[in-house]
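Hi V.,

Quick status before I head out on leave. The structure for the redesign project is tokenized and pasted below; the design run finished overnight.
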């Protein structure tokens, strides 16, 4: 009879490989963080670059954002706040991108407050080696601040 060997042995090997693959996928999902990123809209270009960098480095962080150009007190603000709250609620952590613009953003302040209200971890990060001015709404809540290059490691500790 034609060769193919012992079919039960082949199935056993395949089952073991499938189990290993499933275990690896489960581990990857456990270590991935779904992060809501909060930032001043003026920083969108820099934040876009940083998100791309995180993806290219396979950092294990999936960033979601709801970039808002709408004024905080606009007619659509209540609707936007509800949608942002949904996104924050779906995330396991909120990452606040710090720049010189952050303290001026009422949206970022609201997103930090909403994240804490919803029981989410919040961590602040910045590009480069120099920490920008940390807004009071971050400082007074004891939110940890780390450079972008250390964000992945800091998130693993949360």
């Amino acid at each position: 009879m034609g060769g193919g060997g012992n079919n039960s042995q082949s199935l056993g090997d395949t089952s073991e490989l499938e189990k290993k693959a499933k275990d690896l996928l489960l581990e990857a999902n456990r270590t991935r963080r779904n992060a809501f990123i909060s930032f001043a809209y003026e920083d969108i270009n820099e934040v876009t670059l940083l998100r791309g960098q995180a993806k290219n480095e396979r950092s294990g962080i999936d960033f979601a954002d709801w970039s808002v150009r709408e004024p905080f007190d606009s007619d659509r603000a209540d609707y936007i706040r509800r949608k942002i709250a949904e996104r924050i609620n779906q995330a396991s952590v909120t990452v606040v991108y710090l720049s010189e613009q952050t303290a001026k953003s009422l949206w970022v302040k609201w997103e930090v407050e909403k994240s804490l209200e919803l029981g989410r971890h919040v961590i602040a990060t910045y590009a480069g080696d120099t920490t920008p001015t940390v807004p009071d709404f971050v400082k007074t809540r004891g939110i940890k601040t780390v450079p972008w290059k250390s964000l992945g490691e800091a998130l693993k500790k949360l």
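Above is the designed sequence. The longest helix spans residues 7-31.

G. will cover questions while I'm gone.

Best,
W.
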